[in-house]
Specification:
Blueprint lengths: L4 E2 L10 H11 L11 H21 L6 E4 L2 H19 L4 E5 L4 H14 L2 E5 L9 H7 L4 E5 L13 H10 L3 E5 L11 H4 L3 E5 L10 E5 L25 H39 L3 E3 L10 E6 L4 H10 L2 E2 L4 E4 L2 E4 L1 H5 L4 H4 L2 E5 L6 H19 L3
Helix pairs in contact: 1-8, 2-8, 3-4, 8-12
Bound molecules: pyridoxal-5'-phosphate (PLP).
Amino acid sequence: MDKQIYMDHAATTPVDPEVLEAMLPLFTNEYGNPSSIHRWGQRADYAITTAREEIAEVLRCEADEIIFTSCGSESDNLALRGIALEARELGKGNHLIVSAIEHPAILRTAQQLQNHHGFDITILPVDQHGLTSPRDLKTVIQPDTFLVSIMYANNEIGVVQPISDLAAITHEHNILFHSDAVQAAGQLPLDVETLGVDLMSVSAHKFYGPKGVGLLYAKRDTLTHSQQTGGSQENGLRAGTQNVPLIVGMATALKIVVARQQNDNSKMKTLRDRLIKAVLETISDSILTGHRTCRLPNNASFAFEGIDGNELIMHLDLLNVAASSGSACKTGNPEPSNVLTALALSPKLSLGSLRLSLGRDTNDSDIEYLQQVLPKVINNMRGTP
Ligand SMILES: Cc1ncc(COP(=O)(O)O)c(C=O)c1O
């Protein structure tokens, strides 16, 4: 079969041709530095000012509350380290809370703040579906908690958290709330007022924008400490000449994805549900990981008893299907990810994970092909007829 079936949109998405079109002149003729005073610089500055305003309209925030970064990981780092540094300096507290299923950009940053800088962290458990309970959050808040960081939607199991409820609790205690919205952006509403977030991370390559550009929304006066020092770009909060083409690409991609969101989501949900139903009905000893309904429209994630997830990905690759698994193979010793571990699955199940993430171009025949090949591959791997 010549057809390639890309079912790994949670890892990254292709760049929308319209986005590429918007970026191209900024790589060629319009190469000015936005900090320069001459006309080349003014045009570049105008391009990022416009991009900032367009993004602010989607996030329903002020343009100067957006800080452009190089990726979602940098946005997460800037949020946690920047707020921690300020809390330390102003004596605002020493304790931060993150959920157990955060991306490593949050978890490892929090762990470093603990191990090297003496902050206290609490890792908030989730239930068997990956949901964070607002009631549980209440119980771990301390008098010296200064920040809670809980992701909007999870990258492996697609579970969507009750962000506005969680944020409301932190605000009752005068604590800042950050959310990693890298997976949510493109599929879920990003209105920061309704969500109630003080800080929020986004990355363009998850919604048909370019790789290597992201943003941090930081409500006015919440973030005052930068992580990267140098020039006074981005209100002094992120030094370095802005990547004008990629920033314009991100704004263009966001506008397009928001305009298409309703249609794309409803199409992906229908296909996703068909895939989930078929897999659970035709493959024995299989489970859906993550919550059945509180999940991203494009995420179908499973665990199969007696299967090595990494081997499964390789078999699927040979059959022209790009997928991913939540277990990292560490020198021949596979270990389930922190996400699957947090769901308290048996080790045998959690090593057999599979994430199929749909995109706007996924179609009926892709799903039919998967319905055909996946049970066969699993049966072969299990040695069952
Ligand atoms: C939830 C989440 N946070 C952060 C990141 C990091 O984003 P980036 O690849 O732009 O650094 C990812 C990327 O997969 C993600 O899924």
